[in-house]
Amino acid sequence: MNYTNGKYVFDIQNLNCYYGSFRAVKDTDLSIESKKITAFIGPSGCGKSTVLRTFNRMNDLIPSARVTGEVLFHGQNLYDPDVDPVEVRRRIGMVFQKPNPFPKSIYENVAWGARINGFKGNMDELVEQSLRQAALWDEVKDKLDQSGLGLSGGQQQRLCIARTIAPRPEVILMDEPCSALDPIATLKIEDLMRQLVKNYTIIIVTHNMQQAARVSDYTAYFLMDRDDRAGLLIEYGVTNEIFTKPKDQRTEDYITGRFG
Question: Which of 70, 78, 145, 259 is at a distance of 20 to 30 A from 51, taking alpha carbons?
């Protein structure tokens, strides 16, 4: 894997994820291209979110979880003993399924992450820039001192995106970011993703295949292995090819609705 040209951000090699004695994901190899949107699709329980959380070591927060294999970020294994998981999460931000603003003002929601990461610049400028990047500034610029919890669901999710990008990560992970939103708010988030990918690498888990087809450049299809119930990467490639000319019959069955 050649990282010197900046094409690839991640290279996963022989990844296995366990919760206690249960293997949730097995034998996964996957490379993620820089400044592209990669979508993970597949039925519930097939390991999509587990794989996503290996990229910023969120699985570390689950006591029974462990990972084997390598998750290389610019060639550095994120699971090496000398790697600081807090620094990993600063460089690889995450947006969750349910909007989760802090019970603070809109301003403080955005400023908080940058502040705890030691930001010493002009905070007002950073907050405005982050809210503009999250396509929210025009809607909230006159009420920055009001609670983020007073916003609509779609606005809250965009606030969480602004909070994620304020510390200036390189990668944004999104775990079903639109599943709690209505169709109009969903399209706003999708439009936002296409803007953000000019500056960030984005990996999204989604159950919405139309969403994957609309927004992603690459798609990975996961399926639960019938023998041991471990998540398995079945097929990975350019989104248009996955959706129009899948190489694996199991991918075609899922995309055409004959399975799952």
Answer: 259
